[in-house]
Amino acid sequence: MNEKKRRDREERQNIVLWRQPLITLQYFSLEILVILKDWTSKLWHRQSIVVSFLLLLAVLTATYYVEGAHQQYVQRIEKQFLLYAYWIGLGILSSVGLGTGLHTFLLYLGPHIASVTLAAYECNSVNFPEPPYPDQIICPDEDGIEGTISLWSIISKVRIEACMWGIGTAIGELPPYFMARAARLSGAEPDDEEYQEFEEMLEHAETAQDFASRAKLAVQNLVQKVGFFGILACASIPNPLFDLAGITCGHFLVPFWTFFGATLIGKAIIKMHIQKIFVIITFSKHIVEQMVAFIGAVPGIGPSLQKPFQEYLEAQRQKLHHRREMGTQQGENWLSWMFEKLVVVMVCYFILSIINSMAQSYAKRMQQRLNSEEKTK
């Protein structure tokens, strides 16, 4: 049985766009149809919820479009809602486990905190005009006082974005928990390879020798024995094995609010402040100047590497002071060009990984159907 599972897994892993593009796209389309069918069936059996949602949507739509004194509040709520939804959505994408996961901290939140940090030290203020902030950062008209910017003022400026992103990452950790909990309560074998690996790990816990297996067992033991504070410790540090904590909590029927509360506090408050402080210190004015000077000191290639960094920082200063049109026309800096292309490549790879993952899920459905038919013969 284990040999057959191994062969089936290897066969599924070969269903990727760069090896079998037509089959992968076909299975991806069929998996979407299966998911749509399942959701349609679930919604059909919850007609009262659907009707209530549609009525609420109609009321909100009428409120949004009807003219009146309430429009100023509607616009304010809309702005805040879109801001919160944007960062929560990025947080969910970072941890929900679709495909490879999109590293939205490195691509979106980290650069945003870095931009605010650089702007704060250049403008000597964090009171950026709104609008255009947060879409664009420019210095306020009144000049700030040199040396008034503190670490705490920058932390406070980016707190909402960072906390919303952290809340999103906490929400993204819920699927492994619910999957493992449902499997334990129903006694059925779940359609998830991570959970199957978790059960195999429990079976061979005493004989585990390699570092990866021992690390997974350490996380599992910490969460199982310490409970809330064990989950909090795992969630408060960058931890690629946190999915295992969710599976462990679900498998051992840890109460939902114990798991989600510890995860939320750890990711949205503790871990988020650690990451914020690291980025802010790294991009503070004197550290950036020291890094640029260090690059220029590299023998031979230093000056040629230093020049684009200096040009990029100078272009950012001109943007902050809204003086770009007063100077010479700035060409596109290769650093910003490279970062934009990196974002495009990572997003494209994320989409490709989702397509491959969904195609492999459909292949697994087919294999399970064939195995069940063989058993009934």
Oligomer: single chain
* Mean pLDDT across every amino acid position: 81
- Helical fraction equals over 70%
Quickly count the helices.
16
Shape: globular
Number of strands: 0
Structural class: mainly alpha
Uncertain spans: 323-330
Order of helices and strands: HHHHHHHHHHHHHHHH
- Can you summarize the main beta sheet? none
Rg from Cα: 25 Å
Question: How many angstroms separate the termini?
Answer: 17 Å
Strand content: under 5%
Question: Would you give an account of this structure?
Answer:
This is Vacuole membrane protein 1 isoform X3. Keywords: Membrane, Transmembrane, Transmembrane helix. The protein has about 375 residues and is mostly helical. The protein contains 16 helices and no strands. Helix 5 (about 105-125) crosses helix 13 (about 255-280).
Chain-wise SSE layout:
Elements: H1 2-13, H2 21-44, H3 47-65, H4 71-95, H5 104-123, H6 151-157, H7 159-172, H8 174-186, H9 193-203, H10 211-226, H11 228-235, H12 242-251, H13 256-282, H14 285-296, H15 302-320, H16 334-376
Helix pairs in contact: 1-16, 2-16, 4-5, 4-7, 5-13, 7-13, 8-12, 10-11, 10-12, 11-13, 14-15
